[in-house]
Amino acid sequence: MSTKRKIQEDIDVCEKEINQNEIVLFNDDVNTFDHVIDSLIEICDHTLEQAEQCALLVHYKGKCTVKTGEYNDLKPRCTRLLTKGLSAEII
């Protein structure tokens, strides 16, 4: 009977830590589904299907994360959503 020896090596892995933030879109009684969908496609680079799903989630759940990324990328997008009359914030 032979014995096999197992060797375990420690490997250091360097990973760049990136702080991920989210743009959260909130429901309101003012904007139409079409306006929300068009805005998400234009500003957040959503597909039609993504934008429709987010609009439905916002409507029924009250809020939805519509974009995730670094703060510097999200800030101008959130500002554009706000200028279109949508209720959004970065968290």
UniProtKB/TrEMBL annotation:
Gene3D superfamilies the UniProt entry points to: 3.30.1390.10
Pfam families: ClpS
Repressor is among the record's keywords: no
One GO MF term attached to the UniProt entry: peptidase activity
Swiss-Prot/TrEMBL keywords: Hydrolase, Protease
Record-annotated Adaptor protein ClpS core domain positions: 19-83
GO biological process, one term: proteolysis
InterPro entries per the UniProt record, alphabetical: ClpS_core (IPR003769), Ribosomal_bL12_C/ClpS-like (IPR014719)
Protein name as annotated: ATP-dependent Clp protease adaptor ClpS
Originating species: Lutibacter aestuarii
